[in-house]
Amino acid sequence: MTQSFAASMWHRMTGSLSGANFNGPQDLMATETPSVGDRYAQSTSGAPVWVVENVMEVTSSRYPLVRLSRENHPDLMKIVSVSALSDTEEFVRT
């Protein structure tokens, strides 16, 4: 019983970390790769809007990485994977 509980917890944790709504490459093919200027809002209420600055392929990541800057605050930036942008629980395209 302890092992099944631990396995269940591990599945929940890794599912939430990797994006519960992201099902792998087929989801990326279904959605288009972001372009410079695309806008994404975090799905929480009152969350900031982020603008795509560039999209880059790197050998250390399975999926392209996207550099985002915060709308009206270009000095605030973050880099996320395309797979993170595909997770509709985290980001919504505006």
Descriptive report:
- The chain is an alpha+beta fold and 94 residues long.
- Helices cover 30% and strands 32% of the residues.
- The chain has helices at 2-18, 25-30, 82-86; strands at residues 39-42, 49-56, 65-70, 73-81, 91-93.
- The chain has a 5-stranded antiparallel sheet.
- A hairpin with a 2-residue loop joins strand 3 and strand 4 (73-81).
- The protein is globular, with a radius of gyration of 15 Å.
- Mean pLDDT is 76; it is low at 6-23 and 26-30.
How much beta, percentage-wise? 25-35%
Q: Roughly how many Å is the radius of gyration?
A: 15 Å
Shape: globular
Category from helices, strands and their pairing: alpha+beta
Low-pLDDT regions: 6-23, 26-30
CA-CA gap between termini: 45 Å
- Sketch the topology as an H/E string, one letter per element: HHEEEEHE
Report the count of strand segments. 5
User: How many H/I helical runs?
Assistant: 3
Can you list the strand order of the major beta sheet?
Answer: 4-3-2-1-5
| Major sheet summary line | 5 strands, antiparallel
- State mean pLDDT (0 to 100 scale): 76
Helical fraction: 25-40%
Fold blueprint:
Elements: H1 2-18, H2 25-30, E1 39-42, E2 49-56, E3 65-70, E4 73-81, H3 82-86, E5 91-93
Antiparallel strand pairs: 1-2, 1-5, 2-3, 3-4
What is the structure about, briefly put?
The chain has 3 helices and 5 strands. It has helices spanning 2-18, 25-30, 82-86, and strands at residues 39-42, 49-56, 65-70, 73-81, 91-93.
Keyword list:
five-stranded antiparallel beta sheet; 3 helices; globular; 30% helix; alpha+beta; 94 residues
